[in-house]
Amino acid sequence: MRPPECVICGNDFEPGDKGGVLNFKKRFSDYVWERKMKRIGGVGHPPYAEWFCEEHYTRAEELTSMTINKAMEILREEEEQKKSK
Ligand SMILES: [Zn+2]
After folding, report:
1. Which of 7, 21, 23, 54 has its CA 20 to 30 A from that of 44?
2. Smallest Cα–Cα separation from 49: which of 29, 26, 28, 70?
3. Is the pLDDT of residue 69 over 90?
4. Ligand 1 centroid distance, CA of 35 (Å)
């Protein structure tokens, strides 16, 4: 696992804060990754999981039924729109 740092805004936060890790819908490549980790007994940050701070967690959680690519696309777009206002 990587240290807790929001993938959207880059803010890091302490364990115990309201943000956290979200797992998204697994893609084919994610199943491949899991099988490989199991085979080699490895651990790592799952490619379908990301950290979100308190501010971004709730919205991100609504998108966990999507793959991470799609969810990140939406979240980043929404973030851009927020900034340009
Ligand atoms: Zn954030």
Report:
1. 54
2. 26
3. yes
4. 30
